[in-house]
Amino acid sequence: MHKTDDFERVELGFFPTPLEPLTRLGESLGIQLDIKRDDYTGFGGGGNKVRKLEYLMADAVRQGINVIITTGGHQSNHARMVAAAARKFGMKPVLVLRGNSPESYQGNLLLDKLFGAELEFLDPDGYFTQIADAMQAHADAATARGEKALIIPLGGATPLGALGYVRAVEELDAQLKARGQQPPDVIVAPTGSGGTLAGLYVGARQYWPQTKIVGISVSAKAQWFQERISAMAQDCADLLQWPQSWSPEDIWIEDGFVGAAYGVPSEGGIEAIYRVAQAEGVLLDPVYTGKAMHGLISLVQEGKIQPNSRVIFVHCGGSPALYPFAQKLLER
Ligand SMILES: *Cc1c(COP(=O)(O)O)cnc(C)c1O
Question: N6-(pyridoxal phosphate)lysine occurs at which residues (predicted)?
Fold first, then answer.
């Protein structure tokens, strides 16, 4: 059996991130609610990808990589944090983004520019068939120049990246123990590429076997995530040599809160952003955490999360995406 500390890691973020009660919101919902502030991981504007990148960048440094290539949507927080991480280690970031060439560079796109990332835009229609080749073409071009390239998959969702969220469970466990508190009944987090959920599941099975974890989909159907996340959790547990076995039924995904599509703000998500901002002074975002909070609120109202449960909401970051959606947010 390995420990998360047995794997090489670079220090990028500020840890532990705060764990704080959302007393007013929790009381209004009839649950005991805490928020894990992974929007405050700090590095490169912060967010959940920093935990994954501590492992992924250690691997890049060890390999002597010069060019880091990754992908995401226009307002990809992941792509922005990869760009920052590449720069920190003297590497060149290349981002192949899903979407047409934008009219203006706002939010994460602006930050991508500040980090000096090379940007390529792929038409959304052909994206899923073209993305692997498009990233490989950048890698081949780097190789032809005598440089060494590494492709980081969408969301940094690899078994190694997921270790970052096994570590997050260890961090939460220490925070709760210091307060003399038991593990939570439920953890709620948004799910986009599935890496965060996979790590949380592996960590929770090891340390908190009674805790339920629910992923609120911001994109695909539940079944797709259940298959993907159980496979990733299996690979992550195998990497750690932890005796766990995973199947799709082990993974709880709610897919009713996506709205029209990934990256398109939903009415319920926008309501949740306003509610949390005005109950707690905490900013969520329209692509991930607003939709996830909409899910949490609805699950409590439907009784799928029981009254008086002890719930931790994982704030995965994303507030740079508030600004490009200003118009949409103000239409309410
Ligand atoms: C990437 C991201 C997520 C989703 O995490 P995955 O590990 O990709 O599932 C959630 N919230 C924010 C703000 C993100 O940037």
Answer: 49
